[in-house]
Amino acid sequence: MKNSIKTMLSLAIAFVIYSPLAKAQNTPNSLNQPGYYHMALGDFEVIALSDGTTPQKLNELLTDAKPGEVEHLLKQHYQASTIECSVNAYLVKANGKLILIDAGTSDVYGPALGHITESLNKAGYKPEQIDAILLTHIHMDHIGGLMNGDKIAFPNATVYISKIEADYYLNPANKAKAVESAKRFFDGAEQKLRPILIAGKLRTFDFGGELFPGITPVAGFGHTPGHSFYAIESKGEKMLFLGDILVSDAVQLPEPSITSVYDYDAGQAATTRKKALAEAATAGYWVGVSHISFPGIGHIRADGKGYIWVPINYSASGRGQ
Ligand SMILES: [Zn+2]
Asked: What distance, in Å, lies between the first and last C-alpha atoms of the chain?
């Protein structure tokens, strides 16, 4: 069990006082925004898909900060301590295949979220067309959309997840050992991932090779035991999907040591984040981030001891930047 006592305590306290993605937090709304954004990446196309937005109390969600530091950094970005947090997934068109990175929430978090299928339809695609789904990790805002009730939502897709992640969350013995507040992640895996496994549509991978030409999983551990990034590369252009290693650009870019109550191993998550940010800033490739303001695509630029977020420049054609 890698959780430090400190992490377990902070998780327990946070879940008792506040569950940021609780149904009661959501206000009824439909997805009034278009919910998709196209961009070309070499011969590939990336289409950001919005699952919706939901209020998040970042001053309670973010931990390992000095007193008042989170509020101060949010204020500098004209953000309140409770912000509308995006839940993004990404459709990659690569070599004739339609590959989804994460699957949104489905009906798990109420009407403000659960719009991936709607966004996919608006972008011109149907769930039956999806060939593969690459999961960054097994949390409900990333795997919820795999199932609609007891039906597989993307019936023709093979689902990919790191072996470490699947082995951890699909093992009841690990649930028995986990702190009470973390047991629901195992329940989520049983509800959303086990049926995919039973249907013979789950593929697990080790790191070190491509899943498809130009598409490579990269170890990004800490937020969960087997959390994965995905690198896509075409014609010299690259984008790295960072999952949940970065939750708030306003707070965790200037101070990458600040962690999240949802981190399985907060220390490891901080180390992974610092390495990923340094590499992205040095190499200058694109990044896609699940909870940065939609479409969550941009660049990371070094700024003093930290970094700043440079969002993608809007392009009506999706072919210019
Ligand atoms: Zn997430």
From this structure: 45
